[in-house]
Amino acid sequence: MNKKLSQLYQEDIADRNSGVPSDQLNSNDQKRIAQVQQIIDRDPKLQAEDYHQVALIFQHGETIGHYKKAHELAIQAVEMGDGSARWLAAVSLDRSLLMEGKPQNYGTQFKLNSENEWELVLPVDPSVTDEERATWHVPPLKDALKVYKQKYNL
Fold first, then answer.
1. Three-class DSSP labels, the chain
2. Domain residue spans in the chain?
3. If both were cysteines, with which of 76, 104, 109, 114 could 51 make a disulfide (CB 3.0 to 4.6 Å apart)?
4. Quick check: bond before 21 cis, omega within 30?
C-alpha cells in the first residue's frame, strides 16, 4: 500500500467528517487530486486498496473527467480483487452519466428538491435491473432513497 495515497485518502475523509467549509473543501479536493495524479503517474505498482482510495478522491472532484477517472480506478480495484470498490464504481459511473446528460444506471445520485427534501435524480436507465444493482453493491431502486438517507443521517 502506498503510504502517501493512504494519507491523502484519510485527509479526504477527515475533511468531510469535520465540517470543513465548502470552499475550503473544494480547494483541498483539487490539491489532493493533483497530488494523487502525480503519484499514480509515477507508481505503476499500486495495489487494489490504493486504486480504491484514489478513486474516492477523484469521485470528490468537480469535472466529468474526475468522475470518469474515479470509475476507471474503482474498476481497477475491483479487477484486482477489492470487491468493496464495486459501490464506488457504480456511484462514479452514475455521476459521470448524469454530467453527460444521460440517465444514471444504478440510481445512486440524489438532490435536494424545491421543498428541501432529498430525491433521486432522474432519469434512471430502466434496463438496469435490481439484480445488476446488487452486483455493484447498490440497493434496489425502490429502497435507494431510504438507504441514502440512512447512510448520510439525513
1. CCHHHHHHHHHHHHHHHCCCCHHHHHHHHHHHHHHHHHHHHHCCCCCHHHHHHHHHHHHCCCCHHHHHHHHHHHHHHHHCCCHHHHHHHHHHHHHHHHHCCCCECCCCCEEECCCCCEEECCCECCCCCHHHHHHCCCCCHHHHHHHHHHHCCC
2. 3-151
3. 76
4. no
CA–CA gap between residue 109 and residue 81 (Å, rounded)? 25
Strand pairing partners for 122?
Answer: none
Crossing angle of helices 3-17/22-42, nearest 10°?
170
- Chain center to CA of 10: 15
CATH assignment, 3-151: 1.25.40
| pLDDT tens by residue, 102-129 | 999 999 999 999 999 999 999 999 999 9
pLDDT tens for residues 16-34? 999 889 999 999 999 999 9
Instruction: Find all residues with CB under 8 Å of 60, minimum gap 6, and list them.
Output: 12, 29, 32, 33, 66
Look up residue 3 and give its amino acid. K
